[in-house]
Amino acid sequence: MVFAASISMKKQVSTSMIAKEAGIAVSTTGFILSGKARKMKISEKTEQRVLALAKDLGYVPNALAKNLRRNRSGIIGLLYNHLKHHWADESLKGVRSVLGDTEYSPFLSTHEFDAKLLEKEVELMLQHRFDAIISVPFKEGKKTYQRIIDNGTPLIFLNDTLEGMSDVDMVAWNAREASKTAMNHLISLGRKKIGFLGWDDGRRMIRARVEAYRNCLKREGIDLRKDWMRLFPLEADIAESVVEMFSEKDRPDALFCGLDIYGIQAIGALEGMGLKVPEDVAVVGMGNQPGSEFPSIGLSTVNSPNESIGAKAASLAIELIEQKQSCTGSRHLLHGDDLVIRRSTSI
Amino acid sequence: MVFAASISMKKQVSTSMIAKEAGIAVSTTGFILSGKARKMKISEKTEQRVLALAKDLGYVPNALAKNLRRNRSGIIGLLYNHLKHHWADESLKGVRSVLGDTEYSPFLSTHEFDAKLLEKEVELMLQHRFDAIISVPFKEGKKTYQRIIDNGTPLIFLNDTLEGMSDVDMVAWNAREASKTAMNHLISLGRKKIGFLGWDDGRRMIRARVEAYRNCLKREGIDLRKDWMRLFPLEADIAESVVEMFSEKDRPDALFCGLDIYGIQAIGALEGMGLKVPEDVAVVGMGNQPGSEFPSIGLSTVNSPNESIGAKAASLAIELIEQKQSCTGSRHLLHGDDLVIRRSTSI
DNA sequence: TTGAAAGCGCTAACAA
DNA sequence: TTGTTAGCGCTTTCAA
User: Fold this and answer.
1) How many angstroms separate the CA atoms of B163 and B204, rounded?
2) Residue B51: left if φ>0, alpha if ψ -120 to 50, beta else—which one?
3) How many Cα atoms within 13 Å fall on the side-chain side of residue B189?
4) Quick check: bond before B106 cis, omega within 30?
């Protein structure tokens, strides 16, 4: 069934070849093959004949030629930091839900938090005349992002902005509101001694979590305890910090975690030191990441609207492309504060 | 700093434009800009002048034109089923480790186990003249894969084959050996009553797990108990089955799980019914997927060499491209049987 | 309805 | 060393 065909044996089938074969003009086949037969009032007989011929010959339209001519590729590039979690998968689904009916298609790549790689990928996308680039911003990549703008290519940031690049459109989860939801949940449980585990890489949406934490405490008239608030680098092992925080006699009775992964680690550490979740300590995370739903974990968390973010970004991209604008400075904070209550706060 | 440039304001800078600006011939600039200045013995002065000019004008080479001319794109397409786990991330790293030094670059997409989507993505890649396609095979997509072969485009399957398409080259984790490692580990712990949780979607590498389970039992002279062997559809909720299996008086003292996610769920279910892991039941999974390392889980498992798989696939792709072959039927089973011992088997 | 032909930006063969 | 030029395959204008 499979046949190890030698590429060199095959001649690429082109519109002109089909035209010659059919004994008609190149433009006629061109119109037919690009779906403009109706518009050009080409006889149905001719159309059918050409279509059949194209299929027989195994014709594959050459997008390179087409796009060279149109000077656009029909491709929207997605540039993620990595593909480790479900975020890329879900936002891609959102992107597809919008692009599905259009003439645009997405292609993905990652920058792995590496400025050199980001630059390389962007260069590639620009050289291939991608019509727009959607990226999770990376702080060290400002120069590269600026290059996209200078090039006149639409750029959209996902889930955060970059200082000094406020004109770039952004679609993000409203982490502030979501954090408030999480905090309110803990407070509604009667917990007043709430600790915070999070990280701070300088991005606003990340910082929004700490700020919401602070504001909620303030609103409730609860004093902030600096020793109950920890910021880590991303991907840190936080168990030690948790043990430290909870070894004191006077310890928190709840934990708000800026990221599910911290909540997951915290639950492990707390139970490891004999504390009961949620009886002794209620824990809530952010993002409903895979793992938080495992029966042994059961982390309460707030859902993030990843698919909607992708969808919004895609429709924004199309808008920018059609307006021939690289950016307009619009901001879109998507609400996503569905509380997912699991074991870690089910008192 | 950012400047909402209007695309229409910008004229695309081309080699001929630079040539005119510099007052020299198109070919000269062409040679310089494609790095062939040395070879063509172009004076360094001219070269520097052109390079500087290109930079000043914000020249971005038009890959569309270049590739139309060469009739190849320099792109290798990666077509995953989804991006939920770390698999895509890690294998992409492997692909990059090989492509980094070459003229090829990867672009990603997913087929989401959807034959229609797979077909669409493949069509796109063929139209864009991708030089090779690397895909995690999807059973319902045979016709589409065949189309890649018929087109003469190199195709490589990741982690499995497809029945009737044995000529397609494959790079996969040697799941049989890895399964043996896992089983031997349980046996070395003195466990004889070993249950199996896995799935069967008809793919060989998946089936290899059950087969290894059977063979290991046989080798040890242990009778297979059908009620201790369960196959589920992927992404199933298996807790109920686990409870059922372990409610009997005569129950397994160990579980071999064909997928970490089953192991994770099993640990939750077992502990939920009051059984101790690993004292009552030792559990081992496959793949070292994220989540298995969580402190509350601690699932022992076998590492899968995802990065090596990506790397091997990439170098194979380059080979096929250069040999102008769409496939050669080679098979590459990569050993990855590093046992990762965690709580679930630490007696 | 159909045909002829220009040209998108780049490469590379050929000439000078 | 440098200049000229013919395409790559497709779209689209202009003529017939």
Assistant:
1) 9
2) alpha
3) 26
4) no
Q: Do B272 and A291 touch (CB under 8 A)?
A: no
Distance CA B97, CA B215 (A): 37
The shortest CB-CB distance from A151 to any of B58, B84, B126 is to B58
In the 54-113 segment of chain B, residues within 7 Å (Cβ) of strand C are 59, 61-62, 65-66, 68-70
Each of the 347 residues of chain B gets a pLDDT tens digit; together they read: 454 444 334 568 999 889 988 889 888 999 999 888 888 888 888 889 999 999 989 999 999 999 999 999 999 999 999 999 899 999 999 999 999 989 999 999 999 999 999 999 999 999 999 999 999 999 999 999 999 999 999 999 999 999 999 999 999 999 999 999 999 999 999 999 999 999 887 788 888 999 999 999 999 999 999 999 999 887 778 899 999 999 989 999 999 999 999 999 999 999 999 999 999 999 999 999 999 999 889 999 999 999 999 999 999 999 999 999 999 999 999 997 699 999 999 98
The answer to whether the CB atoms of A168 and B2 lie below 8 A apart is yes
Q: Is B96 left (phi over 0), alpha (psi -120 to 50) or beta?
A: alpha
d(CA B62, CA B47): 20
Report the C-alpha gap between B98 and B83 in whole angstroms. Answer: 21
Q: Whole-angstrom Cα distance, residue B78 to residue B76? A: 7
Task: Name the residue among B147, B156, B140, B40 with its Cα closest to residue B94.
Answer: B156
A123-156 CB burial, b ≥16 within 10 A, e <16? bbbbbbbbbbbbbbbbeebbebbbbbbebbbbbb
Answer whether B109's CB lies under 8 Å from A89's CB: no
Please give the full DSSP string across B139-150, using - where no structure is assigned.
GGGHHHHHHHHH
CB A239 within 8 A of CB A265: yes
Instruction: Using a CB–CB cutoff of 8 Å, tell me whether A103 touches chain B.
Output: no
Residues 6+ apart with CB under 8 A from A122: A79, A133, A144, A145, A147, A148
- Given CB atoms, is B273 within the 8 Å cutoff of chain A? no
Distance CA A182, CA A340 (A): 10
Q: In this structure, what DSSP letter does residue B183 have?
A: H
Within its chain, how far is the Cα of A35 from the centroid? 34
Alpha carbon of A344 to those of A262, A285, B245: distances in Å?
13, 10, 28
| CA atoms within 13 A of residue B340's CA, in its CB half-sphere | 18
Tokens of B180: 């043996």
Burial class (CB in 10 A: 0-12, 13-18, 19+), A193: middle
Inter-residue contact B127 to A107 (CB < 8 Å)? no
From A296's Cα to the closest Cα of chain B, the distance in A is 5
- Which residue, B309, B317, B315, is CA-closest to B159? B309
- CA–chain centroid gap for A16, Å, is 42
- What does chain B come to in residues? 347
| CB-based contacts of B134, cutoff 8 Å, min separation 6 | B76, B77, B78, B79, B95, B155, B156, B158, B313, B314, B317
Element (H, E) at A99: helix A87-99
Read out DSSP for A143-199?
Answer: HHHHHHHHTT--EEEES---TT-TTSEEEEE-HHHHHHHHHHHHHHTT---EEEEEE
